[in-house]
Amino acid sequence: MTKFWFCCALFMTSFVCNAQLRKLPAEFEKWLTSKGMRHATVTMEVAQLTEKDPQVIYSYDNERSVQPASVMKLVTTAAALSLQNKKKTVSTEVYITGEMEEGRLAGDVIIKGYGNALLSSSRSLFARESFANTVTMTLKKEGIIEVTGDIVGDGTVLRHNPVSSEWTWEDMGNHYAPPISGLNYGDNMFEIVLNTSRKGQKPSLLKIEPMVDGLSIDNQLLDKDHAFDSAYVYGAPYQLNMTLLGAVPHRLPQFTVKGAVPDPAQFAASRIKASLIRSGINVKGQAISANDGYKPEFGKARLIYTHKSEPLSFVAKQTNVYSVNLLAEMLLRQIALKYGDGTETAGIAIVLDFLRKEGIDTEGMKMFDGCGLAPADRVTARMIVELLAKMHSCQDFVGSLAVAGRTGTVYSFLKNTRLEGKARFKTGTTKAVIAYAGYAEGTDGHTYAVTIIVNNHGCVSSTVRKNIEKMMLLLIP
Q1: Which of 160-164, 208-212, 313-317, 318-322 is predicted least confidently?
Q2: Which residues, listed in sequence order, are joined to residue 56 by a DSSP beta bridge?
Q3: DSSP summary character for residue 409
């Protein structure tokens, strides 16, 4: 049986125990037949966690396979924390090649990544420019005043699909669905700043921050008189031609739409090059990606700096509290790099094997990515509650979930109720999905594992959330 390294104890008995199953509250059944919900799919399970077998007290269609959206991140983070050391860090190495004469490096600077998704990230524990600044200072300490070669971003430790083959065209190109690389940088994201102050006219593109080398934006946006935007960036990995479609509010002198960088490794190289130039180090070459066919000879390269990422436990918490797809995908690939060939397919197979060995029923589960963005992903409420029960003794896992009414994606959920501060959840949200799964402390002193997933509702999303809040307060003693 797989060991839960450093944090997790195992339940040695089978999970299933419905001896305490209770009749569903009338309000729950009324909700299922209310307007906008009659054609929806709802799956739910609540289990009281005990020292022995968890006791299922409420369930509704709990073996139905449904889309989980970001609730899938629970699976990925649970496997990552269980199969790896919670203190594990990921390296990013800086090499120089060639000879140096009078401060001029006749060679390249190579930035080689091993899958750190928080390098220069807004969610990192380190200042955003700390990596670039340290690389610059290190080169200066080497006495380098000019680089005659290229700045090379090497993310080839992950040589396979940078995005899931099941992700949609509508998602790819947007900041929440960036391609991943062995070398990620700045959340693999850029901002498109627009002027929407001229009513009835196409919003004008003011600038792109930070600049993405060679990027071309076909602006097809419309100006609309509403308070929200429906703008999408359409693009594919390694493709520099992107299209802006949809609508944005007018009357704003600056409005920002976020896109995904097509090639994270090249983007990292370009940001390091810009930092070097700003500091007074001349760079004659280009910022390039090893994906372009560059094959560095590391036997002839000299390592001058190694950056260590935040520990795995911190990454897992950022993944779940803020529901960051990039982090979840990299956690899946880190599992694959340790136990397989680094591919998404290998990572998924390892995760499924882990679940089965821990006695979790995966019959109704389909996994196509680590974050839940793939529309083909499926889970059951029963399977998620089983996972929550198994992981309850892992403090790093429980602590990775957002606190109801206080933090992350559940900052407003259950606020000013008896469960504010008493529950931790992972949310899942798409156009077709609203889901909550996690732990709640009952007034009876017990802890409950709970999952409620709604697919294909016909209501305003806020109405569904309010009703799920009501159900939580009814179902959790």
Answers
A1: 160-164
A2: 47
A3: G
Cβ pair 333, 115 in contact under 8 A:
yes
Separation CA 156–CA 127 (nearest Å) = 26
Amino acid at 80: A
Q: Mark out the alpha helices in 262-304 (DSSP H runs).
A: 264-278
Q: Are 69 and 409 in contact (CB under 8 A)?
A: no
d(CA 102, CA 469): 68
CA 130, distance to chain mean position in Å, is: 22
What confidence tens digit (pLDDT) does each residue in 226-264 have? 667 788 999 999 999 999 998 888 777 888 999 999 999
Q: E strands within 159-294?
A: 189-195, 204-209, 216-219, 222-224, 232-234, 241-245, 247-249, 255-260, 282-283, 287-289
Amino acid at 385: V
Task: Identify the residue whose tokens are 């983070």.
Answer: 77
Question: Is the torsion defined by CA of 395, 398, 402, 406 positive or negative?
Answer: negative
**Percentage of the chain modeled with pLDDT above 90:** 85
Report in angstroms the alpha-carbon separations of 389 from 69, 106, 113, 405: 20, 58, 35, 23
Residue count (the chain): 477
Structural contact between residues 475 and 28, judged by C-beta atoms closer than 8 angstroms: yes
Of 382, 377, 362, 355, the residue nearest 83 (C-alpha): 355
Distance CA 229, CA 417 (A): 32
Tokens describing residue 108: 């390249």
Q: Is the pTM of this model over 0.85?
A: yes
CA distance 424 to 404: 6
Rounded distance, CA 59 to CA 183, Å? 44
Name the phi and psi angles at 343, rounded to 5: -85, 160
Q: Please report, as a single letter, which amino acid is at residue 9.
A: A
Residues in Cβ contact with 109 at an 8 Å cutoff, skipping those fewer than 6 apart: 94, 95, 96, 135, 139, 147, 149, 150, 151, 152, 272, 276
